[in-house]
Design a protein that fits this description.
By secondary structure, the chain is α+β, with helices and mostly antiparallel strands. Helix content is 24%, strand content 31%. The chain contains five helices and six strands; from the N terminus they run H-H-E-E-H-H-H-E-E-E-E. It has a six-stranded antiparallel beta sheet with strand order 2-1-5-4-3-6. A hairpin with a 5-residue loop joins strand 4 and strand 5.
């Protein structure tokens, strides 16, 4: 597997855990990746899946993600947390990773309600839920970039404070989605 850049500490650990749990080409079970396996990176861990209406939804989220949005984001639609201009792209990105299945890598600049800007370097890897469906497990390496130049809007859908720098897919042995492009 090739990555656009070197993995951060949390991502490298997560990738190692994910890879060690993969057997015979099968995706690791979601339940196998827990607090013990992720240790001090669990606050930057989330699981994304398709709900019963096939909407991209956050199934579980660590406190690091919750703190960025200022609330518990488990159960939220990804499109409700993303800027309007990015919602369609993110929905397509997650649907594609789940359907293929494949991994993904993205970098985002996120402005917190305090005005601080964060760089989120995210690694997404597919996992198997108990019912056999595919979900996407994600972990972020985060760093503070400093204060933002503009006022934060409390409604994430109107907030220009989340900018996707890039998003690309990672072939885990099942190929890449049709229509693949680097964003």
């Amino acid at each position: 597997m090739q990555f656009r850049r070197d993995l951060g500490k949390a991502q490298a650990h997560f990738f190692s855990v994910w890879k060690s749990l993969r057997q015979g080409g099968l995706l690791p079970e979601k339940q196998a990746i827990g607090i013990r396996e992720l240790r001090h990176f669990v606050s930057h861990y989330a699981v994304i899946h398709l709900n019963e209406r096939a909407a991209v939804t956050i199934l579980h989220s660590g406190t690091g993600f919750d703190e960025l949005w200022g609330r518990n984001v488990a159960g939220c639609l990804v499109s409700d947390l993303a800027p309007v201009k990015a919602a369609d792209l993110l929905n397509w990105f997650f649907h594609s990773m789940i359907k293929q299945p494949c991994g993904g890598h993205s970098e985002e600049i996120f402005t917190h309600k305090t005005g601080d800007r964060y760089q989120l370097d995210l690694l997404y890897l597919p996992v198997r839920k108990k019912n056999g469906d595919t979900a996407i497990a994600a972990i972020a390496d985060m760093k503070i970039l400093g204060p933002s130049d503009y006022i934060h809007f409390p409604n994430r859908a109107q907030d220009p404070g989340q900018i996707i720098q890039y998003a690309d897919f990672i072939d885990i042995g099942h190929g890449l989605p049709a229509g693949y492009f680097e964003y």
